[in-house]
Amino acid sequence: MTDDTIDAFARIPHSRTSGEIIQQIELLILEGVLRDNERLPSERDLSRRFDVSRPILREALKELEARGLLVSHHGGGTFVADVIGRIFPNR
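Structure (tokenized):
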């Protein structure tokens, strides 16, 4: 393969990124569509619904977990964190 051949490949923009998944899940939590302690669908199902690869989905889920919005239980699934209970403990 020559350098000219390699230069012929152009970067393809990705319309679906982990950031977009993060925004959508955050919005679903804020709007109350996803409730505290609710289990999310499996990674396979979510990646199919978002039409993204599983590594991109995992990146988004890890970021949401780091932000304290999701909790992951090994072998048990991913759940919406009890955010309201932490912010308003007497509720």
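The longest strand covers residues 70-73. Strands lie at 70-73, 77-80.
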